[in-house]
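Subject: Sanity check before I submit

Could someone independently write out the structure tokens for this chain? I want to compare against mine line by line before I put it in a report. The sequence has 227 residues.
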Amino acid sequence: MTTQILILGFLAAASLPQKSAASDWRPVVQADNYEMFIDIESIVRKDSKAKTWVKLIYKNPVDVETSSGKLPSLSAISLTSFHCTERAYFNLQTTTYKDRESTIVIHEERRTDFRSDYFNVQPDSVGEDMYNFVCNPSQVGIPAFPAKAQPEFQASPSKDTTSISGSFSLAHWVLSFLVAANAATIVHIAVSNETTRLRKAGWVAGCLLVPFIPYLVWLFTRKNKPS
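---
Independent answer below. Compare away.
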């Protein structure tokens, strides 16, 4: 029973959001109907390429084409890739939201890195403001790129700080150990001759089902988050 309680607790803990690096959204453009922000904590560079997360917050709803028809959107977050030497950029993925807090997803779109329809940076445009912010930070008066974002171009903007081996966190290692202990408990009950078959089946069913209750609660109460 102690094993069951521990597994229950760790499954509940594993369903909570993992600690991640904080974002730092800096304003880039303020237009009549929207504001644009760039997360400087997510800027990563390799050679002449860079990428970062870009957020748009609309002052008035903007219609977005979805599988359910046109829906009003008040914000959008895009992962944008830049070819700094070519003065070009391309949106790798975009998530649009119903609300300004970016919690209710209404549409998601992903693309392959730099197809033929990339955008050339036009002079004196919003695209140039965004390009200068990412590729020429000294021109817009922002600090140098964060050192931790420099080495890996494929780095994620959100990192699990509890990870000790790849993407496998300490909580998952402990959980795996407890699952193995639970399996050993089930085997012990199954081979024991001290209880009737019916009661034995009930204990085995309990061992199998109880640990998944926190996961089922999380599954049906979770909220959509951007990727």
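---
OP: Matches mine. For the report I'm noting this point. Residues 12-20, 144-167 have pLDDT under 50 and may be disordered.
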